[in-house]
Design brief:
The protein is α/β, with parallel strands linked by helices and 259 residues long. It contains eight helices and eight strands. The two termini are 29 Å apart.
């Protein structure tokens, strides 16, 4: 890995370290490109309890953006730094989110669909779920997100933890992989999943991605500075990619959201 576009900071409430800590870790690891993609705010929390430790609040976004831009200037001769967010696609709130991100000069988004619907009163995508209808909702919602053309890549696309028929899972995930291919959106093998022994990466999903010819990138999903580059998880991910014949890419162009 010479680039990591999936990096979190203390601002999301469940990660450690400030932006500078991650930049220094990236330099020490020999990375050339570091993208910050902390969990985006969503301003529906203006009317909901702000008790989920998973994303920054809207009023915290300006400080985050300023900190990353300052680092990008300071490190410009040593490390290419970009300002992004990891965002869910919630149709009801997405236009308002885009306005907020554009106002703060955010360069790119990666898609991380942690909840279905518009989140409020809906279920977490990573919980074990035997309901085919929920799987279909996840696939339909993420395909709609990909079709906006605004996401640089799809983080942990195999997050949905379906525990029903593998044939049903494979059929739905093939739809997702084909949509990613059609929209030229890379898919991420998530190193946090490997690092923590989670239910993803899912080998069935990645076998389908190989068959469909999807572009694939590795993402550290770093929540601590030392995880910006994780050699052991990276090695496992490369082994998976080589075993299945996945098309790994090292760097990618950012899809601007300010157009």
């Amino acid at each position: 890995m010479i680039a990591n576009y999936h990096t979190h900071t203390f601002r999301c409430g469940h990660a450690e370290g400030r932006e500078r800590d991650y930049a220094e870790a990236a330099l020490s690891a020999g990375l050339k490109i570091l993208g910050f993609s902390d969990h985006t705010p969503y301003d529906f929390f203006d009317s909901e309890p702000r008790n989920r430790p998973m994303r920054m609040k809207p009023e915290e976004l300006p400080d985050y953006a300023e900190a990353v831009r300052a680092l990008a200037e300071e490190y410009r001769d040593r490390l290419e730094i970009h300002l992004g967010v990891e965002a869910e696609f919630y149709p009801r709130y997405f236009p308002r989110l885009l306005e907020l991100l554009r106002e703060n000069g955010v360069e790119y988004m990666i898609l991380g669909q942690h909840f279905l619907g518009n989140e409020i009163g809906d279920s977490y995508s990573g919980r074990p779920c035997p309901d085919r209808r929920e799987l279909e909702r996840y696939v339909a919602q993420t395909i709609e997100a990909l079709q906006t053309g605004l996401f640089t890549y799809f983080a942990h696309p195999d997050l949905f933890h379906y525990v029903g028929s593998e044939a049903i899972f494979a059929g739905e995930m093939r739809k997702l992989c084909r949509a990613a291919k059609q929209t030229d959106t890379p898919l991420e093998i998530n190193l946090l999943g490997l690092r923590e022994g989670r239910h993803y990466p899912n080998s069935c999903f990645w076998r389908i991605a190989a068959e469909e010819g999807n572009s694939v990138i590795l993402g550290s999903d770093a929540h601590r500075p030392e995880h910006v580059l994780d050699p052991q998880s990276e090695e496992k991910a490369i082994e998976l990619a080589n075993e299945l014949g996945l098309q790994l890419i090292g760097t990618l162009p950012l899809r601007p959201i300010n157009t």
